[in-house]
Amino acid sequence: MSRCQYRVGFSQIKIHHKDVEKNIEKIERITKEKMFDLLVFPELSTTGYHFEKRKDLKKISLQKDDEIFDSLEKLCRDECKSVVFGFSEKDGENVYNSAMMITFEGKRYVYRKTHLFFKEKKLFDKGDSGFFVVKLKDINVGMMICFDWIFPEAARTLALKGAQLIAHPSNLVMPYCQNAMITRSLENRIFSITSNRIGREGDYNFTGKSQIVSSDGRIIHRAKSSTEEVFITYVDLKKAKNKKINDRNDLFKDRRNEFYVC
């Protein structure tokens, strides 16, 4: 295998509402059982999604350096694996809809959701981390969360910063994202992993259909809408470095920034 052949995947799971310990134990169990380089879990994997009151969510929110993540960190370090999962992050008086990446080196990186959806605006503070890329061995990985998908600027920013793959934890309830992420991958020539959940909380019915999309817009695999599934495959991420469409067109070199409105 070339150095850019990586085992990547998603974990489409049911999440136990408000049961943080049980949810983290599930993430740890799957991480231990499966062989991969990078595995992506859904948005808010530690808490579930449906909360009426911010104070109830804040009570079970976690900090980046909380000891509850220590065993997962050790597991990633010992087995040379990296994971991305969504969690409700507490930082002082603020609460963020965040995604944590724990790397094979045991490092923790947190992305805070930029674009909050619907009632999330009464529960969470606006994310302030911005979009960034993490180097994992020889590949560059960016993160975005769920509703970020509808803003093309999110994926484009990550791609311009060098991301070859986007890890995309989600709690999707609308039918549009999966197909939109095909376009996001194609227009940026990057791989994407959308990890959605299944089940129902309150009025929210989560749509599943987690997927991996290649840099040419091909669906490598898409899960079913209502069953748990962990899917892992090899991908050749060096393909995401090639932004040429043909001999005369390069996706990034052909951009005309002087005519765009930011």
From TrEMBL:
PROSITE patterns: CN_HYDROLASE. The keyword Iron does not apply. This is Putative N-carbamoyl-D-amino acid hydrolase. Gene3D superfamilies: Carbon-nitrogen hydrolase (3.60.110.10). GO terms for molecular function: hydrolase activity, acting on carbon-nitrogen (but not peptide) bonds, in linear amides. Keywords: Hydrolase. InterPro entries: Aliph_Amidase/BUP, C-N_Hydrolase, C-N_Hydrolase_sf. It comes from the Bacteria. The keyword Transport does not apply. Residues 6-237 form the CN hydrolase domain.
